[in-house]
Design goal:
InterPro entries: NHL_repeat
Strand content: 25-35%
Number of strands: 4
Helix content: under 10%
Keywords: Repeat
Number of domains: 1
CATH class: Mainly Beta
Structural class: mainly beta
Strand order of the largest sheet: 1-2-3-4
Shape: globular
Largest sheet: 4 strands, antiparallel
Length: about 60
């Protein structure tokens, strides 16, 4: 399966397709990706095949 870029590559920022100093990443058994987005003070989640992430902790929900 080829990868799909869902965050990054568009510069730093706080949109749901941007990260600002990501410091950690976890992928669960279902393929959901979680990223600690340090400078935006949030944790982001991307479901498998998502085109943008959801804020699940911190930041503006």
């Amino acid at each position: 399966k080829e990868g799909v870029i869902v965050a990054g590559g568009r510069g730093q920022g706080s949109n749901r397709t941007q990260l600002n100093n990501p410091t950690g990443i976890v992928v669960d058994r279902l393929g959901t990706v979680y990223v600690a987005d340090q400078r935006n003070n949030r944790v982001m989640r991307w479901y498998d095949s998502a085109s943008y992430g959801d804020v699940i902790a911190g930041g503006l929900i």
